[in-house]
């Protein structure tokens, strides 16, 4: 009996240790340790979006690019140093991802209230949700408890983040590699109902592709010439309501007005046509599915338990 009791106690301790290093994300992770967290994030995001509505889209994209490289670990927030190369200058991110200063502002306010408690990865996840909500989109409960990476992976950022030029097969494969389905791809692409794209990313589509509305192509050509002297000129991803989070992105696709090649492939006589058509007429379904897909996205390979760290400065490893 004594031997059995000792064995049971040993196994119980092992189980507890295993749970501590493989902890799961939970909804109320900071309820006791930083109860003001979500208010701080929401207030800072509200101020930022009042100054520039586009920042909601920027933060959402920042979160997506973070999660697709080694999971949702805040690695994209790290600056380069003399001995460290981060993800900010990877091809999909360089001079493109924005919103770092907003995350810095949130982190500073959170640190003032709850020192060394909340990860930058969790702050980014909450800020992405609030940006969507503040632009009229759905809300969702963000699972929390992520810890911050101590490193970043520029080569993975170059190879694993989807590009505006990719076709449906390649996009689907990349999403499947992250545990996301083709349906997740289609609903998460609905994030392009807000934000803007640079001329260099849609020039080939408006000049060379045939599955595009003629008037739409002409409109986009007005500030995106065939030459490369205006690469950074911007156009809205959603031509109807570019600063409102709604289902008009899908209406654009049905009308052959997708800005990026990677947008229009979702509605081009392929496997996602029916889902795009459904979302174009049912905003409630899109909102529900988008919220669920964002929760799923946010759970990609988080660092939890004793892995990683809680960065004091989101740009630097402690």
From TrEMBL:
GO CC, any one term: extracellular region
| Cofactor binding description | Binds 1 heme b (iron(II)-protoporphyrin IX) group per subunit. Binds 2 calcium ions per subunit.
| Binding-site list for substrate | 162
Q: Which cysteines are joined by disulfide bonds?
A: 34-114, 67-72, 120-314, 199-224
This enzyme's EC code(s): 1.11.1.7
* GO molecular-function terms, A-Z: heme binding; lactoperoxidase activity; metal ion binding; peroxidase activity
Q: Which UniProt keywords apply?
A: Calcium, Disulfide bond, Glycoprotein, Heme, Hydrogen peroxide, Iron, Metal-binding, Oxidoreductase, Peroxidase, Secreted, Signal
Please list the residues that bind heme b: 192
Question: What does the entry list as the binding residues for Ca(2+) 2?
Answer: 193, 238, 241, 246
Q: What class of enzyme is it?
A: oxidoreductase
Q: Where is the Plant heme peroxidase family profile domain?
A: 24-318
Active site per UniProt: 65 (proton acceptor)
Positions with a binding annotation for Ca(2+) 1: 66, 69, 71, 73, 75, 87
Would you say which domain of life the source belongs to? Eukaryota
Record-linked InterPro entries: Haem_peroxidase, Haem_peroxidase_sf, Peroxidase_pln, Peroxidases_AS, Peroxidases_heam-ligand_BS, Secretory_peroxidase
The stretch of residues making up the signal peptide is 1-23
Site label Transition state stabilizer, positions: 61
Q: Which family does it belong to?
A: Belongs to the peroxidase family. Classical plant (class III) peroxidase subfamily.
Instruction: Indicate what this protein is called per its UniProt record.
Output: Peroxidase
Organism lineage:
Eukaryota, Viridiplantae, Streptophyta, Embryophyta, Tracheophyta
Q: Which gene encodes it?
A: 11416629
């Amino acid at each position: 009996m004594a031997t059995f009791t000792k064995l049971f106690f040993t196994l119980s301790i092992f189980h507890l240790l295993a749970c501590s290093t493989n902890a799961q994300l939970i909804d109320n992770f900071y309820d006791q340790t930083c109860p003001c967290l979500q208010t701080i994030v929401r207030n800072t995001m509200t101020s930022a979006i009042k100054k520039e509505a586009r920042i909601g889209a920027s933060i959402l994209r920042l979160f997506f690019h973070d999660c697709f490289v080694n999971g949702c670990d805040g690695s994209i927030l790290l600056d380069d140093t003399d001995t460290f190369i981060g993800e900010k200058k990877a091809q999909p991110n360089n001079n493109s991802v924005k919103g770092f200063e907003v995350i810095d502002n949130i982190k500073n306010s959170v640190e003032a209230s709850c020192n060394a408690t909340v990860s930058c990865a969790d702050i980014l996840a909450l800020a992405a949700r609030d940006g969507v909500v503040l632009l009229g989109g759905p809300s969702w409960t963000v699972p929390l408890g992520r810890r911050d990476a101590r490193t970043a992976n520029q080569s993975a950022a170059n190879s694993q983040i989807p590009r505006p030029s990719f076709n449906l097969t390649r996009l689907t494969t990349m999403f499947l590699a992250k545990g996301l389905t083709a349906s997740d791809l289609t609903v998460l692409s609905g994030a392009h109902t807000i934000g803007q794209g640079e001329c260099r990313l849609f020039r080939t589509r408006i000049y060379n592709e045939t599955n595009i509305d003629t008037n739409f192509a002409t409109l986009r050509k007005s500030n995106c010439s065939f030459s490369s002297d205006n690469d950074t000129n911007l156009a809205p991803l959603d031509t109807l309501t570019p600063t409102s989070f709604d289902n008009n992105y899908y209406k654009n696709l049905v009308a052959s007005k997708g800005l990026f090649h990677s947008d229009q492939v979702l509605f081009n006589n392929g496997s996602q046509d029916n889902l795009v058509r459904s979302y174009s007429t049912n905003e409630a379904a899109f909102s529900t599915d988008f919220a669920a897909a964002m929760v799923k996205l946010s759970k990609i390979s988080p660092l939890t338990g004793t892995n990683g760290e809680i960065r004091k400065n989101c740009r630097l490893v402690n």
